[in-house]
Amino acid sequence: MLLVRNNVTITAPSIDQHIAALRPKLIAFARLQLRDSAAAEDTVQDTLIIALEKHDSFAGRSAFETWVFGILKNKILERIRYERRYLSWQDSDQNDEDSFENLFQENGRWQPASKPQSWGEPDEILENASFWKLLDTCLLVLPDNIARVFTMRELMGLTTQEICEALSLSDSNCWVMLHRARLKLRSCIEKGWLT
């Protein structure tokens, strides 16, 4: 079977090969979001079935990978909504270390232990593969509910309103969870990157 997209002919085996090459990225993304390997595998499998069945509807307005990731994002949201209906949302831990007030002294200056450290030049860090591996590791050790909110916002690009609707959160609770995620990620990265 042949497909023509943007004046490029693609044969069915190359579509299969392209999807096979894309699968590890999809699984990594789904595991990060769902925090359950079996759920991630199932969600990616559903995504790939849809991509293969509906490849004729791919109009080529974006990269094929972007189109497949769009399908995956929708499948992840469907799964989260389904789980939300049947599972209770775990309460976020209210650690004092996460309290915004505990980061600063009464005079408004940073507490010595909380003061951010320099990470170096941003452009150099973003090009460093070790930094990205550390960030992935730090994301994996976040508490599940906080990680889910953070990845929905920062990796999936959802608005806080969309996150609140999908997870039945209040707007203020969503912002608190995003704040906690950023604090925990900063702390983890500083421990792993700067030491």
TrEMBL record:
- A GO BP annotation: DNA-templated transcription initiation
Domain of life per record: Bacteria
Residue ranges occupied by any RNA polymerase sigma-70 region domain in the UniProt entry: 19-85
Gene3D superfamilies per record? 1.10.1740.10, Winged helix-like DNA-binding domain superfamily/Winged helix DNA-binding domain
Keywords assigned: DNA-binding, Sigma factor, Transcription, Transcription regulation
Q: What CDD domains does this protein's entry cite?
A: Sigma70_r4 (cd06171)
| Domain RNA polymerase sigma factor 70 region 4 type, residue spans | 134-185
Gene Ontology molecular function: DNA binding; sigma factor activity
Q: Which family does it belong to?
A: Belongs to the sigma-70 factor family. ECF subfamily.
User: What PANTHER family has UniProt attached to this entry?
Assistant: RNA POLYMERASE ECF-TYPE SIGMA FACTO, RNA POLYMERASE SIGMA FACTOR HI_1459-RELATED
Q: What is this protein called?
A: Sigma-70 family RNA polymerase sigma factor
